Amino acid sequence: MSRRESRIYAMEIIYQKELETYENETQQISSLKIKDEIFGNTLIEKMEEDKENIVDNINNCLMEWSFTRLGFLERSILLLGFAEMKKFQEIPLNVSLDEWVDIAKDYCGEDAKKLVNGVLNNYKNILIKDKIRVE
What we know:
The protein has helices at residues 3-18, 26-29, 34-49, 51-62, 72-87, 93-107, 110-129. It is mainly α.
């Protein structure tokens, strides 16, 4: 199981939580390899620890749009993408950005891909400008 598959796993859980229909997070965990299980679960935990701040950052990067107007999959992807870009210093920013854009393309379509790319790119630039991350 790759990190990409772990990202998709995390996106599915957050998507279901956003819909408020997910009952048992541990059901899907058993199919992940230990290393990637830890990554996927850590990604979810990091996002949930800082969700309010992440939503504020997403809103700032959306410009004339708001988080609440996005579809649930787009919300899930952006929540996890922002968390990964800020909290996982060992993963290059462009790797995180590219992975989440590809996931948006695969699961949401071309328009979502453009939205996710633009918003994550804005956030990447903020992280670099504020010296939270290096390029």
